């Protein structure tokens, strides 16, 4: 079977290697064999594949994997041969409050991931995929989709009529736009590209702002919403958090899900305190969160936005496209 590994991390994306390897063993007790059909690219995967996160040489990349069950081991009742499934980001976090603080057991980082055609793994490393979704669509759930769901619904308790601010038009933000609109919320979204903002409006965004031409976009969004938005999905980190706090209402919620502008910086703590905003940091979610999300997706009338698809052998090119920032929504690779 084909797989993509990190041969030499120091070479960055040039160090990704496509190779042939023996297929995995037949599943034992509690395991399933899955023919992986698609994966989707995330900023975390880019950090690993580019060598920035100092990955282990020989690591099979990619945290997201969707495919079809081809064999079932003894004692597995949840899945059957022919079921469409999607991987979970934290295999050991099944349910309950957060239990993981690193990526040592995350596929594609601390352990081998899904840039390979077949895997034999414990059944609880997967959930069912949404009925009727393609493998490429399902592959977007593991990281981006579940992060958006947890930020808005699990942590934010989103309800119809709420107002939401989303930053940028990457995978998580576009997913969050679709979830929020499907649940009856009003959404503001930012970008440095007017063309991307037009696409966001076509998906239902109620208000858009170009943060390059409006440096005080936080105040602009707050004015649009009246007294500030109820929820902010914060992907930027230190360089954007101050404006997000300005955009948020008194008693509102900011969920920090990314650090695209750096891992440290100044935070306007006095304003955060004065507005009594709840600031929560999250990393994806549990298997139970994903199961709940999949059930919800089967009642929502939208499909994930896939900007571009690549072959597995062209994974390095897919990451270069992600690096360019041209994409709107998700980038996938199909096998």
TrEMBL record:
Location of the region described as Disordered in the Swiss-Prot/TrEMBL record: 1-29
Q: Which CDD domains match?
A: MDR7 (cd08276)
What the entry lists under InterPro entries is as follows: ADH-like_C, ADH-like_N, ER, GroES-like_sf, NAD(P)-bd_dom_sf, Zinc_ADH-like
Top-rank taxon: Bacteria
- A Pfam family it matches: ADH_zinc_N
SMART domains xref list: PKS_ER (SM00829)
Q: Where is each Enoyl reductase (ER) domain found?
A: 12-333
GO molecular-function terms, A-Z: oxidoreductase activity
This protein is called: NAD(P)-dependent alcohol dehydrogenase
What organism does this protein naturally occur in?
Salinimonas sediminis
């Amino acid at each position: 079977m084909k797989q993509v590994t990190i041969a030499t991390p120091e070479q960055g994306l040039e160090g990704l290697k496509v190779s042939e390897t023996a297929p995995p063993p037949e599943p034992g007790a509690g395991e399933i064999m899955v023919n992986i059909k698609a994966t989707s690219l995330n900023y975390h995967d880019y950090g690993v594949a580019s060598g920035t996160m100092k990955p282990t040489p020989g690591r099979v990349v990619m945290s997201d994997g969707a495919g079809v069950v081809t064999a079932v081991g003894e004692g597995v009742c949840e899945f059957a041969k022919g079921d469409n499934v999607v991987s979970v980001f934290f295999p050991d976090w099944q349910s309950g409050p957060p239990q993981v603080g690193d990526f040592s057991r995350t596929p594609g980082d601390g352990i081998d991931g899904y840039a390979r055609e077949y895997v034999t793994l414990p059944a609880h490393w997967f959930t069912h995929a949404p009925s009727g979704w393609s493998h490429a669509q399902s592959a977007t759930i593991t990281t981006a989709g579940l992060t958006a769901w947890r930020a808005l619904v699990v942590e934010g308790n989103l309800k119809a009529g709420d107002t939401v601010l989303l930053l940028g038009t990457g995978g998580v933000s576009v997913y969050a736009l679709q979830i929020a609109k499907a649940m009856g919320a009003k959404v503001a979204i930012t970008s440095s590209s007017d063309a991307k903002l037009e696409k966001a409006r076509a998906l239902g965004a109620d208000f858009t702002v170009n943060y390059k031409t409006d440096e005080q976009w936080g105040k602009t969004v707050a004015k649009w919403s009246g007294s500030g938005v109820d929820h902010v999905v914060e992907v930027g980190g230190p360089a954007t958090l101050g404006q997000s706090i300005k955009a948020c209402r008194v008693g509102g919620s900011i969920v920090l899900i990314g650090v695209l502008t750096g891992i440290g910086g100044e935070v306007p703590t006095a304003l955060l305190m004065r507005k009594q905003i709840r600031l929560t940091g999250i990393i994806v979610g549990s298997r139970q969160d994903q199961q709940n999300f999949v059930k919800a997706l089967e009642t929502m009338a939208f499909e994930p936005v896939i900007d571009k698809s690549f072959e597995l052998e062209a994974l390095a090119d897919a990451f270069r496209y992600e690096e360019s920032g041209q994409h709107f929504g998700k980038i996938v690779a199909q096998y």
